[in-house]
Please model this.
Amino acid sequence: MLSDAAHPLDPSVLAALTGQTAKRAGEQQWTVDDLDWTALRPDELTEQDRSTVRFITLIEDHIPGYLGYFLQAFPVTGAELEVEDFCFNREYFRFLIGWASDEDRHALALTRYQLAAGVATPQSLALELATEGQKPFVLPYQRPIQAFAYTLVQEKATQLFYQLFNDAITEPVLKDLLNKLARDEARHFAFYRRLVHAYIERHGLNSIVPDLKAVLETFRMPLSDTLDNYWRWSLRVAEHAGYDHTEAYEALARVVSSFVREGGESSAEDLLSFVARVRVL
Model:
């Protein structure tokens, strides 16, 4: 369980954010069958397109690992839980269940796409997903605000990637699917943006900026430490889409720079400069 004694957030604030996100999710709901599978044109896929689809399927299909990590970090059972911690975790659980449903739908849609487009056979795909899916997912953070800031950046990076990959391809069903994925990721990012905003509003920039710096210093995309051949594969994928995940760091910087409060301006400027330096590195 992550410890956040120094930076509590009222559960009612999280409840309001979760409710907003759930409402928006209901308005944007889609299913795998909403895609026009009869319009599929596999001949329009390049080898790099196919490789990229395999890569993002592995990332999305790891949702049991991601969800398991967050449920362990924010437990809702156990007699040792303080009432306030339980209430906070219980509200976050409401978001996690909806988020996990979205991500599992992404995995299902990408899996079906691979099979329909002839990117993989059922046997080879099942083996590939099982091999990577059994590996654990962990984050090197000690406080919830760090985990939330990490996920803010990760969700924005994923949204940006889907948008750029969409621009790089011509196959119509994949383009439609990527649009849907990007829209979901944008909604997830918006939740974490509001959540980090609430932490800063509650505690001030000076107390939060060190945690944000710690995240940016150690940020890695999901599965970077476990997926076979991740770095070489991810570089090819990024080059194909014209993508740089550090662009997502700017999203975190914008959350900070939106605050103008006594004693906070220097912290905001410091983080903005820090983001620029990290992106160069």
Q: What stands out?
A: DSSP finds eleven helices and no strands in the chain.
